[in-house]
Design a protein that fits this description.
Length: about 300
């Protein structure tokens, strides 16, 4: 197998190649003065290629580079073309929330599948709906071991795992099972008239004095986590840890998190955007991704 890093590879390619005992290559890349992307692969003799990319920042360019690459490799007769996109953009637009909206998440998956991509490995993918619809293509890797080990080594007991809404409960349940711990799901209540969001813990639960760990898939503006953190602070919790796979950290999100009472935010190396801050820690998910690729492809 050849592991080929596309320009947006967030730094997983070489490590993956090592773990998979595969060859690694970068792809020659430049941007023309008018903004178009140019890519050139080395001559490939392998019958299996794993592309490595991410899609933040610059979602549109990196996705286009994926389409171009899959098309080229397929047209060269390579049958087993795979990709690892630990963060795949547009996964939140997975249905027509309003009629005639573009379902971007579905469009991207249809395009890569029809171009010849056989498997697409993603990390902590947002949409259960698309995971079901594209179950032949998508392999979703939940970073249970990476996060689980971090919690064992870094967070003082007693602590409680918290799912910020029903949508997050599956990923929290798996982590809780790995750690042999309980978890709680916070109920999100939206006022239909004002649109304001409130949160609610199970009635009989007292979190006063506990450390809490909020688990989610994406931090974009930081609004969701900040709102939950403020609510938990009002309930008297001690320290708040946030474990989120994809740290997009848009705008003043970090200030929002700090002001809301978050003590530490832990994210994975799934995007190319990196912050330097004592509030943020990065974990390397390469080994967990490699392990899942091996399980899927080497039966
Ligand atoms: C929403 O359902 C997602 O799981 C994240 O909670 C959300 O995308 C985070 O966005 P933001 O940081 O802008 O609140």
């Amino acid at each position: 197998m050849l592991v080929a890093s596309l320009p947006s590879d967030p730094g997983l390619g070489r490590g993956l190649a090592r773990s998979l005992q595969a060859r690694h290559s970068d792809v020659t890349y430049k941007v023309f003065p008018d903004g178009e992307s140019y890519l050139r692969f080395p001559e490939i003799i392998d019958d299996e290629v794993m592309l490595v990319l991410t899609s933040y920042p610059d979602q549109n360019r990196s996705l286009l580079e994926l389409f171009f690459s899959v098309e080229l490799l397929s047209s060269k007769g390579i049958e087993r073309v795979y990709a690892v996109a630990p963060y795949l953009a547009y996964s939140r637009q997975d249905k027509e929330f309003l009629s005639w909206e573009i379902v971007s998440g579905r469009a991207i998956l249809k395009i890569v599948r029809s171009a010849g991509l056989k498997k697409l490995f993603v990390v902590d993918f947002h949409s259960e709906k698309l995971l079901e619809e594209f179950s032949d293509l998508l392999i979703n890797i939940l970073p249970v071991k990476t996060f689980g080990r971090y919690l064992r080594e870094n967070v003082e007991e007693p602590y409680i795992l918290v799912a910020p809404d029903i949508g997050a409960s599956k990923r929290v349940k798996l982590l809780a099972e790995f750690l042999n711990k309980d978890y709680v799901v916070i109920r999100k209540i939206r006022d239909r008239v004002t649109g304001e969001v409130a949160h609610e813990l199970p009635e009989d639960l007292n979190v006063r004095g506990f450390n809490v760990v909020i688990i989610d898939d994406i931090i974009s503006t930081g609004g969701t986590i900040a709102s939950i953190a403020r609510y938990l602070v009002s309930k008297g919790v001690h320290k708040i840890y946030v474990l989120v796979s994809h740290g997009l950290f848009v705008g003043d999100s970090l200030d929002k998190l700090r002001a809301s009472g978050v003590s530490k935010t832990v994210v994975l190396n799934t995007v190319k955007h990196r912050l330097t801050s004592n509030l943020v820690e990065y974990l390397d998910v390469t080994d967990e991704v490699a392990e899942n690729i091996r399980k899927t492809l080497i039966k």
